[in-house]
Design brief:
heterodimer, A: alpha+beta, 2 domains, ten-stranded mixed β-sheet, two-stranded antiparallel ribbon, 12 strands, 18% strand, B: alpha/beta, Rossmann fold, six-stranded mixed β-sheet, four-stranded antiparallel β-sheet, binds adenosine-5'-triphosphate, binds magnesium ion
């Protein structure tokens, strides 16, 4: 995003926030009692209800889309251990499009930066990632699923993945463990079911849970078996555990500078955090939809508030005769509009809670596979929704409030 | 002798409507003493309301000056004028102008909300004002639950709750039956006689006019008697 644009958006939001604070302060210090607004609003309740519902809808759409983005970010952020280093082919954009050789694996095994386990073996896992097109539940057609061939080392390196049903696969028996969250979306994913991929039939022997990480969108099987089933000579990526943070830095530098290896290394968490980019389009969509729907909501609020000002011309004049200032009149109408909009915002947030934790899926842009994640409605998000509603109320009421304040004092006596 | 509370000199008000000018007030000069109960009479369109509005600081003259106590009202800006009205003038409208969603008590309290008085002190003043108009037992009623005469008495309570020196009333009995009108006029008279307020009232009704201490007749924007 261009810096100027960001600056504009930020100043606009800042201005709105200042305006809202000013309204609340003015209303607090000298004022027409809030009760006046609350009761007046419900006299013309039809247009009030329409406005509240409209704003609730806008806030609902905004909060839900943002909560999807939060869910994706959370999934990416909770994937990976900061101590692990992921090694992929230079230029590969996703694990599944990376290819690494057995020769490279042999070279890496002798790097002394890598931790050894109790048996003296280097803690390094060579994974095989493949995409399988599998039938969805019901009439959903087919979708890609990411299958990961892992070694026992690979499972040790990913302790957040655990078994929730059945048992782990045993090598050589064409067995697979699928994610519980995917099991709800694909046919034949129950424990004991079998499904075909290419000429091979695989048996589901268990369900795994990735604790909200990206592994919730994967199926795991034995690495060597995966290579034979999919006739792959090569691996996709290496995951290694260096001895110490210093060793990790050295390892990354060593791999990156070795021209013969043609590999790229970075921390596992760093790698998955970059995948957060997939949340960006959803955020843009949320922003775009919110913006376009906002325009409608602002006009609805404006309409309601112009009607309110029109119907209360004599009351406004009376307040002015009694000594209320123009700023009091502006504040009282803005407060009314903001409270109205925040009522809509609260309604929108409440409705959105119904989807909190609800799991859905999208196509990952990097791997083209089904990626599951959950709507996650955080307090920050709800607060954003409320601020959004207040902002709609503020901008929708500004012009009607100014009109009210500009009415001549005499209108108290003329309009009947 | 004390200086007059209202001192009007050479006051004119012109309304421009397209090509024609309407002269609502034409070079009016007038002094009103403290505690007087002035009754303004005259045919429709003679400028009574216009004069009242200028004295009350809700309209501005085209020429001339209007001093109330030591303030040249016409010289105040919009915001100063609002404060000045709040402290110095109680206004009684022909059609009551109570806020329909607020109770009698809350309506009377409105002008006090601008004064910075504490809630307990406000309550005391509102109660006193409602006692004075004989409506303390109706304080929690909404305007629509009151009769016209009662509404107007609440409006009078609202006009006097800030204890202003000047009470102005534009046809306060115009929408009332004879009994209610008498009640309202009695209250206005006692405000002038017992509380020492200066009252200026516009009326068409000769019986109402009899309550005043001085009658002024306007015709075509000029005081004729
Ligand atoms: N806003 C305005 N624009 C143009 N002319 C106006 C305006 N207000 C008042 N006038 C004119 O000024 C003149 C005096 O009006 P004003 O309201 O003071 O009369 P009034 O004596 O109170 O009459 P009434 O007894 O009918 O209330 C009238 O001719 C009226 O038409
Ligand atoms: Mg009049």
């Amino acid at each position: 995003m261009p810096a100027v644009f960001t600056l504009l958006v930020q100043s606009f939001l800042g201005l709105t926030a200042l305006g809202i604070v000013a309204v609340f302060l003015t209303a607090h210090f000298s004022a027409v009692p809030v009760k006046y607004n609350l009761k007046s609003v419900f006299i013309r309740w039809r247009s009030t209800v329409a406005t509240v519902v409209g704003i609730a809808l806008v806030v609902l759409v905004y909060v839900l889309l943002q909560s999807l983005a939060v869910g994706i970010e959370k999934s990416n952020a909770s994937t990976g251990d900061p101590r692990n280093i992921l090694i992929a082919r230079k230029g590969a954009t996703a694990e599944s499009s990376s290819l690494v050789t057995r020769a490279q694996l042999r070279t890496l095994q002798y790097f002394e930066e890598i931790e050894r386990n109790a048996a003296g073996d280097p803690v390094i896992s060579a994974d095989v990632l493949t995409l399988a097109s599998l039938p969805r539940k019901g009439q959903g057609g087919e979708a890609n699923v990411l299958l990961r061939g892992v070694t026992p080392r690979g499972m040790e390196l990913r302790p957040q993945v655990h078994l929730v049903a059945g048992r782990w696969f045993s090598p050589g028996r064409r067995e697979i463990v699928v994610s519980r969250k995917l099991a709800g979306r694909f046919a034949n994913f129950d424990v004991g079911d079998t499904f075909k991929t290419g000429p091979t039939t695989l048996t589901v022997v268990g369900w795994l849970d990735g604790s909200g990480s990206a592994y919730d969108s994967e199926c795991w099987m034995d690495a060597d078996e995966s290579r034979s089933v999919f006739e792959r000579e090569m691996y996709s990526t290496f995951l290694v555990r260096p001895k110490s943070p210093e060793a990790a830095t050295n390892l990354i530098r060593r791999i990156e500078s070795d021209k013969r290896l043609q590999l790229r290394a970075e921390s596992e968490t760093g790698y998955y955090q970059k995948q957060t980019l997939t949340a960006a389009p959803i955020k843009w969509l949320a922003g775009f939809l919110a913006l376009t729907m906002s325009i409608g909501a602002v006009f609805a609020a404006m309409n309601t508030m112009y009607a309110a000002v029109g119907a209360r011309t004599r009351e406004i004049g009376t307040l002015r005769v009694l000594g209320f200032h123009r700023r009091n009149v502006i504040a009282t109408f803005l407060l009314e509009g903001i409270l109205l909009a925040m009522l809509g915002g609260a309604l929108g947030c409440l409705i959105s809670l119904k989807w909190n934790g609800y799991t859905t899926a999208t196509l990952s842009v990097e791997s083209f596979s089904e990626t599951v994640f959950s709507f996650t409605i955080t307090p920050t998000l709800a607060a954003q929704g409320m601020f959004f509603a207040a902002a709609l109320g503020f901008w929708g009421t500004l012009l009607p409030a100014v009109r009210a304040a500009r009415l001549p004092v005499i209108s108290a006596l003329k309009a009947l | 002798m004390a200086p007059p509370i209202v001192s009007i000199r050479d006051l004119s008000k012109l309304y421009r409507q397209g090509d024609i000018n309407v002269t609502a007030l034409n070079a009016v000069s007038l002094d009103i003493e403290l505690g007087e109960f002035i009754v303004l009479m005259g045919p429709s369109g003679s400028g009574k309301s216009t004069l009242l509005h200028i004295i009350a600081g809700i309209d501005r003259p085209t020429h001339g000056s209007c001093r109330v106590q030591d303030t040249d009202v016409a010289r105040l800006n919009e915001s100063q004028l609002a404060d000045w009205r709040n402290r110095n003038v109680g206004f009684v409208f022909q059609s009551f102008n109570l806020i329909p969603v607020l109770t009698a008590f809350e309506n009377v309290e409105l002008p006090l909300l601008l004064t910075g008085l504490k809630a307990s002190r406000r309550r005391q003043q509102v109660t006193t004002a409602l006692h004075l108009v004989g409506l303390i037992d109706r304080q929690h009623h909404l305007p629509r639950q009151l009769s016209g005469g009662q509404e107007q008495r609440v409006a009078i309570a609202r006009a006097l709750v800030t204890d202003p020196p000047l009470i102005v009333a534009d046809e306060p009995t115009g929408n009332l039956d004879a009994k209610s009108a008498t009640d309202v006029l009695e209250i206005l008279r006692s405000l002038s006689q017992q509380a020492g307020k200066t009252v200026i009232m516009v009326t068409h009704d000769p019986k109402a006019a009899a309550y005043g201490t001085r009658q002024l007749h306007l015709e075509k924007g000029e005081i004729v008697a």
